[in-house]
C-alpha cells in the first residue's frame, strides 16, 4: 500500500509507503490548507485474485494496514479521514510549540540543564489557579567555574577549541568533563561557547531538523532570567565568527 498526499495550494504531491510517515509529512507542511491523502494498493495486487474473485493481496494489505490504525480502511473515506487526522496532528503540534515558547519566554528550563548549571524545581501557580512544578537554572559551584575559565581562554587569550580542550584534559579533577569519566573534545567546548544560556537568557529552537537556525528565529527570554556565568561582551568575543571576521580560520570551530 502506498499513500500519496496532495496540496491544492502549491501542488505538493509526495508519495509514502507508510501511513504514519505521510501523516507526519502532512503535519509539517506549511500551506494554509491541509493536504488530502489517497491510499492506493500496489499495481501487482491486481494480478492476484482468490476464489471469490476479489483481490486477495489487496485485502491482506488492507487488513495489515488496518492493524496500525483502525480508521482509513474505507476506500471512499480515506481522503476525508486523512485530512482530518493531518489537521488534528498539525493543531496538536502547534499547541505544543506554543506551550514551549511560553515556558521559554517565562524563563523556565526545558530538558536537561547545560554544563555549569543545575535545575532547581520550583512550584508556580498559573492564572487559572493550578499549581505546577517548573525548572529554573542555578549555577553549579564546580562546573560553573569551568565555564567561566573556558570563556576567558577563548575571549581574552584567543585559544582554539582544540587548545582549550587539551588544557581541560590536563587536569580532569579541576575541569570535570560533561560526560562522566569522559574527555573534553573541541566539539564539547564549542557547544559551551555558543550556548547563549550562559548570558542569563533562556534560548530554544536554535536548530531545525538538526541544522542551525538563523538567530532571528530563536525563541529567547528576557535578560537575566537566571544568574549569568558570562557577560554579553565576553560571550560575543568568544564566538567563532570573531576568528572568521579577522580573516583567520579556526580549525576546531
Main traits of this protein?
253 residues; alpha+beta; three-stranded antiparallel sheet; two-stranded antiparallel sheet; 8 helices; 9 strands; 37% helix; disordered C terminus
Give a written overview of the molecule:
With 253 residues, the protein is of the alpha+beta class. 37% of the residues lie in helices and 15% in strands. The protein has 8 helices and 9 strands. It has helices at residues 19-28, 56-68, 78-105, 143-155, 161-169, 186-193, 232-237, 240-245; strands at 2-6, 15-16, 36-40, 117-125, 131-139, 203-204, 207-208, 211-212, 219-220. The strands form 4 sheets. It has a 3-stranded antiparallel β-sheet with strand order 2-1-3. A two-stranded antiparallel ribbon has the order 4-5. A two-stranded antiparallel ribbon has the order 6-9. A hairpin with a 5-residue loop joins strand 4 and strand 5. Helix 1 (19-28) crosses helix 3 and helix 5 (161-169) packs across helix 6 (186-193). The model is unreliable at 54-77 and 242-253 (pLDDT under 50).
Low-confidence region ranges: 54-77, 242-253
Structural class: alpha+beta
Overall helicity: 25-40%
Q: Count every beta strand, where a strand is a DSSP E run of 2 or more residues.
A: 9
Q: Characterize the biggest β-sheet.
A: 3 strands, antiparallel
The general outline is: elongated
β-strand percent reads: 15-25%
- Kindly state the mean pLDDT as a whole number? 78
Note the total helix count. Answer: 8
Strand line-up in the sheet with most strands: 2-1-3
Radius of gyration over C-alpha positions, nearest whole angstrom: 26 Å
Amino acid at each position: 500500500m502506498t499513500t500519496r498526499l496532495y496540496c491544492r495550494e502549491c501542488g505538493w504531491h509526495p508519495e509514502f509507503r507508510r501511513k504514519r510517515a505521510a501523516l507526519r509529512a502532512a503535519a509539517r507542511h506549511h500551506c494554509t490548507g491541509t493536504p488530502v491523502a489517497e491510499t492506493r494498493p500496489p499495481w501487482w495486487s491486481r494480478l492476484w485474485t482468490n476464489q471469490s474473485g476479489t483481490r486477495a493481496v489487496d485485502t491482506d494489505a488492507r487488513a495489515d494496514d488496518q492493524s496500525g490504525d483502525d480508521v482509513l480502511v474505507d476506500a471512499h473515506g480515506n481522503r476525508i479521514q486523512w485530512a482530518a487526522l493531518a489537521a488534528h496532528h498539525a493543531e496538536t503540534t502547534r499547541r505544543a510549540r506554543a506551550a514551549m515558547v511560553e515556558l521559554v519566554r517565562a524563563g523556565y528550563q526545558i530538558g536537561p540543564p547545560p554544563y555549569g548549571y543545575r535545575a532547581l524545581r520550583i512550584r508556580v501557580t498559573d492564572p487559572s489557579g493550578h499549581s505546577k512544578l517548573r525548572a529554573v537554572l542555578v549555577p553549579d559551584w564546580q562546573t560553573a567555574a569551568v565555564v567561566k575559565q573556558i570563556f576567558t581562554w577563548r575571549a581574552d587569550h584567543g585559544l582554539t577549541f582544540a587548545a582549550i580542550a587539551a588544557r581541560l584534559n590536563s587536569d580532569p579533577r579541576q575541569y570535570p568533563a560533561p560526560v562522566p569519566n569522559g574527555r573534553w573534545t573541541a566539539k564539547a567546548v564549542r557547544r559551551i561557547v555558543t550556548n547563549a544560556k550562559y548570558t542569563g537568557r533562556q534560548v530554544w529552537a536554535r536548530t531545525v531538523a538538526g541544522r542551525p537556525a538563523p538567530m532571528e528565529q530563536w525563541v529567547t527570554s528576557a535578560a537575566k532570567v537566571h544568574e549569568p556565568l558570562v557577560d554579553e561582551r565576553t560571550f560575543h568575543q568568544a564566538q567563532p565568527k570573531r576568528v572568521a571576521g579577522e580573516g583567520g580560520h579556526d580549525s576546531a570551530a
